[in-house]
Every structure is written in structure tokens, then in C-alpha cells.
């Protein structure tokens, strides 16, 4: 029997292996593509809605298998075009093993070239 005929008649979509691979692929697609898009768009919208300012990250990446979030070139400016908050890179690593102990922890993370100005703009927070 040919392989193509065997795949059609075997009902491959009822296989546990198929659904395992499908779930892993779906998890990867959501983690690598949807999560960064949602974080980037939410950050820009939240800054605009909460403060009336402009800005957000230039690039966001997330690795769902390592649980690592990287935010590059974030810049937030107020209404007078003054830089309020900026950094070149933020890396946050979540320790997945800590869920087992119900003690969520972050592995070594870093923030590169932070800058900002804090004055009375934040008194309404």
C-alpha cells in the first residue's frame, strides 16, 4: 500500500502524536509571534491611554521554550517631546522550574542603558 493511501485511510488526525505535535507547534507560534505583538501594541496603547504620552518598544521578542522576554529600544516621550523613560535592552528570564515550588522567580536579567527624567509629572500616579 502506498504511503499516501495509508495516511488517508489511517485517520492520522486521530493519532496522539499528531495532536502532541500540533499543540507544540501552536504553543511555539503563539509564543514567538502573538505574544511579542500583543506586548508591543499593549505597551503603546497603555502609555497613550494612561498618560497621554507617545512611545513604546521598537522590538519585542519572546522565547516560549526558555521563557525569556527581550524588549529593545523602548522610548516614552511626554507631550512636550521630553524623553521620560528609555532603555536600549531589557532581558527578563523566568525560571520555569520555580512554578513547581509555587515560588515564581526570575533568573538573572539585565537592563542596558536606562535613562529618564523623574519630576512632578508622576505625582498623579
- The DSSP helix count reads 2
Helix content: 25-40%
Per DSSP E runs of 2 or more residues, the count of β-strands stands at: 5
Distance, first to last CA: 70 Å
**Low-confidence spans:** none
Order of helices and strands: HHEEEEE
Secondary-structure-based class equals alpha+beta
Name the overall outline.
elongated
Instruction: Give the overall average pLDDT.
Output: 84
- Proportion in β-strands: 25-35%
Radius of gyration: 22 Å
- Major sheet summary line: 5 strands, antiparallel
Question: Please, could you describe this protein's structure?
Answer:
By secondary structure, the chain is of the alpha+beta class. The chain is 34% helix and 33% strand. It has helices at residues 3-9, 16-51; strands at residues 54-63, 68-77, 83-94, 106-112, 115-116. Strands 1, 2, 3, 4 and 5 form a 5-stranded antiparallel sheet that branches. β2 (68-77) and β3 (83-94) form a beta hairpin. 6% of the residues are buried. The model has no long low-confidence stretch (mean pLDDT 84).
Amino acid at each position: 500500500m502506498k504511503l499516501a493511501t495509508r495516511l488517508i485511510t489511517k485517520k492520522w488526525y486521530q493519532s496522539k502524536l499528531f495532536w502532541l505535535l500540533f499543540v507544540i507547534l501552536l504553543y511555539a507560534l503563539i509564543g514567538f509571534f502573538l505574544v511579542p505583538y500583543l506586548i508591543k501594541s499593549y505597551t503603546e496603547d497603555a502609555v497613550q491611554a494612561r498618560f497621554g504620552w507617545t512611545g513604546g518598544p521598537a522590538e519585542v521578542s519572546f522565547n516560549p521554550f526558555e521563557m525569556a522576554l527581550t524588549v529593545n529600544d523602548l522610548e516614552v516621550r511626554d507631550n512636550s517631546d521630553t524623553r521620560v523613560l528609555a532603555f536600549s535592552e531589557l532581558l527578563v528570564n523566568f525560571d520555569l522550574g520555580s512554578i513547581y515550588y509555587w515560588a515564581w522567580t526570575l533568573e538573572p536579567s539585565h537592563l542596558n542603558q536606562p535613562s529618564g527624567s523623574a519630576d512632578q509629572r508622576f505625582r498623579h500616579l
